[in-house]
Each structure stands twice: as C-alpha cells, then as structure tokens.
Design a protein that fits this description.
two-stranded antiparallel ribbon; two-stranded parallel sheet; alpha+beta
Length: about 80
Amino acid sequence: MIDFGFEFRILPDNIQTVTTIFNSKTTCITHIDTSINSVRIDLLDETIDEINTIAKAAMNGTKLDGKQYTYGNLNRDV
C-alpha cells in the first residue's frame, strides 16, 4: 500500500449510527451544473476567512482554486 500522507477525518454519529469520512482537502463541487437552490456545507476546522470564501463560492456557484481544494470524483464508489 502506498502512503501519500493524506489524513481523512472520521466523524462517527452514535445516535444515528452513521459515520462520515471527510476528504483530506476541502471538497469543492459548486461547479456542477444543477438546478438546486440550496446547499449544505459541512465545516470542521476552517477559519472564519476560509468559511467566508467557501460560502461565497457556494452562493455564486464558482470553483475554489488552489492546492488546498479538491473536486473529488462523484461517480466513484467507496
């Protein structure tokens, strides 16, 4: 197994018995063309500035650019 040094945060919910695995980078999917009019943003350790940047991108439907962001692969099974 190759270790790329990424850490994926695991957040268990013992009440609903659901475990969420977060990507090691901020995942940006605002560039997907859909007709939705609301989004859910899960935040863990972001600063106020990062939260504002993420919220503005979500509201405007723009991509977040930089090494700290990933665009994921929504068609990939885990």
